[in-house]
């Protein structure tokens, strides 16, 4: 029988289907970014831990330089896949594929690098933040400081107001959409520039609560009916060049329950709050977008009611 956390994991991303991992191997943006970042960070003599190894490809990249790689995977189907694939590849013998829960596992020795790619747009669904925080506590208790270098080192998240087309052959359906960042979608109109709402530094403590309240000045007339969420993973900081090696997730576009008709110059206030690893509907339920004029009128009416004689 699965315990409560294992059941939750099945729903929230820990046990995503094997074929999804195969599709990730074909994602050139992801593969290129991680290969470059791992080649930059991992040096001969290092020991590397990967939490949530999937097919083992990131551990394979690390094994080309590292002396030893511990690859932890909870899904038994993927454990078999990773072991099979690594046996076919150069330096695959350096990788120890371990069937264990990343929430609980500690390597038998200190490591230099920890790779963890349990990443979803806006840090939803998958347990990246919780896994890293739990690992840091266990690692410090067992081995003491310093902590290893984490990959990604940080995540930068932004939000952007949109007018989004939701007609599918005449069928109106406001759905969650994931869009390739390199493609211009004719049904998507950007109503304002994106605003950064959170920066997570995995070397620093974090409780997983993500909350934001901010305003946008609308750039063109339209119907604000969706918010785009942008997630940039800073895989490695290249100090000597003053640059970073990044991986940008697909955009996630969430429909608003109450669309707003806006004109250029309008100020729209947006607010939301959610926990890293939570479901997409939990964020949708928290989304609020209001015109500044409406807020001012509401405040004025409330003030007037307060001043009315009893």
Describe the structure.
With 310 residues, this protein is an alpha+beta fold. The protein folds into two domains: 4-151, Rossmann fold (3-Layer(aba) Sandwich); 154-297, Distorted Sandwich (Hnrnp arginine n-methyltransferase1). It is 29% helix and 35% strand. It is built from eight helices and 17 strands. The protein has helices spanning 4-12, 18-25, 28-41, 57-63, 76-87, 128-143, 280-286, 292-307, and strands spanning 47-51, 68-73, 95-99, 113-116, 149-151, 154-164, 167-168, 171-172, 177-179, 188-190, 195-201, 209-217, 222-238, 243-248, 251-262, 267-275, 288-291. Strands 6, 9, 10, 11, 13, 14 and 15 form a seven-stranded antiparallel beta sheet that branches. Strands 3-2-1-4-5 form a five-stranded parallel beta sheet, with helices on both faces. It has a three-stranded antiparallel beta sheet with strand order 12-16-17. Strand 7 (167-168) and strand 8 (171-172) form a beta hairpin. The longest helix is centred in the middle third of the chain and has 16 residues, at 128-143. The radius of gyration is 22 Å and the shape is elongated. Residues 4-13 and 295-302 have low confidence and may be disordered.
């Amino acid at each position: 029988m699965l315990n409560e956390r294992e059941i939750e994991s099945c729903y929230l991303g820990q046990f995503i289907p094997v074929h999804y991992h195969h599709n990730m191997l074909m994602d050139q943006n992801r593969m290129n970014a991680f290969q470059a970042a791992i080649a930059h960070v991992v040096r001969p003599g290092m020991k590397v831990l990967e939490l949530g190894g999937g097919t083992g490809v990131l551990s394979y990249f690390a094994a080309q330089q590292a002396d030893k790689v511990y690859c932890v995977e909870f899904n038994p189907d993927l454990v078999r896949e990773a072991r099979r694939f690594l046996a076919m590849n150069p330096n695959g013998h350096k990788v120890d594929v371990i069937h264990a829960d990343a929430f609980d596992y500690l390597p038998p020795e200190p490591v230099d690098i920890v790779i963890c790619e349990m990443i979803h747009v806006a840090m939803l669904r998958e347990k990246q933040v919780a896994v890293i925080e739990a690992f840091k506590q266990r690692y410090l208790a067992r081995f003491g400081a310093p902590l290893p270098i984490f990959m990604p080192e940080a995540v930068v998240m932004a939000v952007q107001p949109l007018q989004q087309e939701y007609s599918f052959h005449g069928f109106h359906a406001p759905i969650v959409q994931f869009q390739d960042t390199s493609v211009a979608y004719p049904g998507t109109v950007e109503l304002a520039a994106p605003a950064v709402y959170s920066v997570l530094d995995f070397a620093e403590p974090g409780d997983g609560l993500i909350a934001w309240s901010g305003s946008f000045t609308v750039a063109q007339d339209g119907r604000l009916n969706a918010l785009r969420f942008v997630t940039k993973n800073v895989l490695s900081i290249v100090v000597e060049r003053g640059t970073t090696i990044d991986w940008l997730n697909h955009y996630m576009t969430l429909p608003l329950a109450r669309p707003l008709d806006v004109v250029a110059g309008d100020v729209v206030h947006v607010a939301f709050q959610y926990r890293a690893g939570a479901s997409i509907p939990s964020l949708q339920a928290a989304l609020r977008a209001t015109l500044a004029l409406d807020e001012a009128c509401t405040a004025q009416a409330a003030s007037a009611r307060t001043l009315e004689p009893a």
